[in-house]
Amino acid sequence: MTQVDFYILPDTTLEARLDFACRLAETIHRKGYRLHIHTEDEAMARELDDRLWTFKPESYLPHAVLADEVDPLPPVTLGWETPPAPGVEAMLNLHPEIPEWFSRFERVAEIINQHQDVLTAKRACWQTYKKRGYPVKANNLTRPNAAGSR
Q1: Three-state DSSP class for residue 23
Q2: CA pair distance 39, 45, nearest whole angstrom
Q3: What is the structure's pLDDT at 143?
Q4: CA distance 47 to 128
Q5: Angle at 34 between CA 78 and CA 22, to 5 degrees
Q6: Radius of gyration of the chain from its Cα atoms, rounded to whole angstroms
Q7: Are 6 and 139 in contact (CB under 8 A)?
Q8: In order along the chain (150 residues), what is the average pLDDT of each group of 10 residues?
Q9: DSSP structural state of residue 86
Q10: Stated pTM of the model
Q11: How far is C-alpha 79 from the geometric centre of its chain's CA atoms?
C-alpha cells in the first residue's frame, strides 16, 4: 500500500515550497528511488526544472520534463498531465489535487506551506488519503535558527 508523507513548512511563499521540493527530490533520489514530480501546470514544471539545475551548486540531480520526450528517461521526471512510465517508485505531488494514478507508487510526498490556497487544497488531500485507508504521516518542519526551534 502506498505510504503518504506530508511535509509541513512554516513558510508562505511558492519559492520556499519549490526550494524544499528540490531538496526533497535530491533526498529521494539519493535513497535510490525513481521519482516523478507531479506539478500543477507546465509553468510550474519549467520553473522547477530550472531550480533543479541551480538549487545547490555542488549537486547534480538527473531530471527531465516528460513533455520534452527525453530518451532514456532520467531517474527524476517532471510532468503535469500524464503519469510517468512504469517503474517509478515515488511521486512528489505539487498539484493541488491527487492524481487518480497515485496508488501505483510505493511512496507519495506532499508539501504544505502556510499559503491559504495550498493549506486548503492539501487538507482536502489529507482527508482523501485517510478516508481511503492509506497510511499518512505528518512531518512538521521548522525554520532553521528560528526562535524556539530545536
Answers
A1: helix
A2: 6
A3: 61
A4: 28
A5: 50
A6: 15
A7: yes
A8: 97 94 97 97 96 88 94 96 93 98 98 96 98 98 53
A9: T
A10: 0.92
A11: 11
- For 133: left if phi > 0, alpha if psi spans -120 to 50, otherwise beta; the answer is left
- Neighbouring-strand partners of residue 35: 76, 90
Q: Is 104 helix (H, G, I), strand (E, B) or coil?
A: helix
Contacts of 45 (CB under 8 A, 6+ apart): 37, 39, 65, 67, 78, 79, 80
Grid cell at residue 87: 517503474
DSSP 16: H
C-alpha cell read off for 44: 510550474
Q: Which three cell numbers stand for residue 102?
A: 497515485
Q: Distance (Å, rounded) from C-alpha 90 to C-alpha 109?
A: 8
Q: How far apart are the first and last CA of the chain?
A: 33
